[in-house]
Amino acid sequence: MERDDIIEYSLDGHHSEEQGKKIRKKIWQVTALLTLITIVEVALGAYIKQGSGAWPFVKWSFIAMTILKAGYIVAVFMHLGDEKKSLKSFIIIPYAMFALYLIFIALWEAFATSDVLSNL
Amino acid sequence: MSGHATNLDVKTLWGGKESPFSTSYGKLMMWFFLVSDALTFSGLLIAYGFVRAAITDPTSGVQTELWPIGEETFNSLPFLGHGYPLIYVALMTFILIVSSVTMVLAVEAGHRMDKKGVVKWMIATIVGGLFFLFSQVWEWTHFIHGSEFGKIELSDGSEAIVHGEFGEIKSFRVESVVPGSHHKKGEVIKDDLMHSFQHAAENGHIYKGGIIELHDGTRAKIDKAPDHHVELIVKKSGGKRKIGDVIEGKEAIDLYYKSLYSGTPKVTYGAKWFEDGDHWLPAKNEYGHNNMHISFSLLLGFMAFMYFLELSLTSLFFLVS
Q1: Which has more confidence, B261 or B18?
Q2: Cβ separation of A27 and B101 shorter than 8 Å?
Q3: Per residue in A20-30, pLDDT tens?
Q4: Residue B211 is part of which domain span?
Q5: In a domain, B199, yes or no
Q6: Where does residue B27 rank: exposed (0-12), middle (13-18), buried (19+ CB within 10 A)?
Q7: Which among B3, B38, B55 has CB closest to A13?
Q8: What are the residues whose beta carbons fall under 8 Å from the beta carbon of B271, sequence distance 6 or more?
Q9: Which of A29, B59, B219, B225 is 20 to 30 Å from A88 at the Cα level?
Q10: Within a domain: residue B206?
Q11: Does the predicted TM-score (pTM) go above 0.80?
């Protein structure tokens, strides 16, 4: 039987020097953006202490910036952005549903466990 | 971009003469792997979140004061010492991002059939990966080994982690010897000072006025430079001080040395695996409440497992390819 799993790398996906230039430009732009976000995160972490009034804002902005970074890495560096919409949804939606539900239920159970432990 | 999705030719079709999502078999399987990898890490991180949220300080119900806090725990840089909260962690995640950049550049070079470019960017990726791996080894070794101050039990029974610049130990001047000692009275010891100091401190063999009792019973006067910017952060409440209290300045130094020089074991360095050889869990740790040992064993064990996995998988790939 003819193998259908290794063909892609030898026959498909070529591009010219001209197209390559564009692609590399995009890669470096995304790198610059990710660097910028990282610098903002470090600066916020360095200047705002846990427990201060602004901390809840910082905490949620960390989560938002991390998801933004992950999005760029997956979309551009891992090429998911170039795929068909159906493949994107097929990868992202089941994973997001599972992770969000697990976070919700684990924290919910953790608070209940905490109540039980402190009333022993 | 790389154009896989749009220009599939007839040879890319699967056995059933179709290509699900217009993609090749190999690529779809790679995504299956990535999703399963992401699920594994979600499971582990969320499990850690569960433990942290479930175990809270019984008096206040707050977990952040009881548990080690990232910037208090990871605040060292290689060769530069302490006082750089989370800088090394940030540097490491940045190196991780940069090595994904070099990887994607290698792929791009491959699409242009530029062999030299692929080799160049792949080497850069491997270097980045190794730097990250050895940074992890350094960071966790440092974590297990602990800081120069350690965690101290204060006179009221409270326990505090210690931040600051530790003054260098210059020498031990021998004051008295017992039969069988390796030293002579008046001798000045200059070797292995920090190790001997921490060993004696853990066992409560440092006495009032800065007298250290070494392994062989020799007693010596410690000559040590003063400490600076010392800060005690209380992690376990005692008779007088509560979780979250911060003590600074001269009071902090006085309290620290009152305990350290008390002649009883009051200090803990790093995260210890065993206590008296009969516990299979880390019995004590420097970073927070001692009862946190269970999650440390989970983290430390997991990290050790990951090193093993990464190293063996990497060697396997090199052998196969």
Answers
A1: B261
A2: yes
A3: 888 899 999 99
A4: 172-225
A5: yes
A6: buried
A7: B3
A8: B143, B144, B146, B282, B284, B285, B286, B287, B293, B296, B300
A9: A29
A10: yes
A11: no
| Position B196 in a domain | yes
B221 within a domain of the structure (yes/no):
yes
The residue of chain A with its CA nearest to that of B106 is A24
Q: Are A88 and A96 in contact (CB under 8 A)?
A: no
pLDDT on residue B290: 66
Name the nearest CA neighbour of B234 among B161, B319, B167.
B161
> To probe the interface with B, which of A27, A88, A89, A117 has the most B CB atoms within 10 Å?
A27
User: What is the C-alpha separation between B300 and B290, in angstroms, rounded?
Assistant: 15
Number of domains present in the structure of chain B: 2
Q: Do B54 and A16 touch (CB under 8 A)?
A: no
Contact B4 A106 (CB under 8 A): no
- Token digits of residue B201: 């401190």
In chain A, which residues have their Cβ closer than 8 Å to the Cβ of B98?
A: 31
DSSP per-residue letters across A80-105: GGGS-HHHHHHHHHHHHHHHHHHHHH
**In this predicted structure, what is the pLDDT of residue A98?**
94
- Give contacts of B61 with chain A, Cβ < 8 Å: 114, 118
Nearest to B160 by CA among B292, B295, B286, B294: B286
How do residues B172-194 score in pLDDT, each as one tens digit? 999 888 887 788 888 888 888 98
A63 in contact with chain B, both atoms CB, cutoff 8 A: no
The residue of chain B with its CA nearest to that of A106 is B50
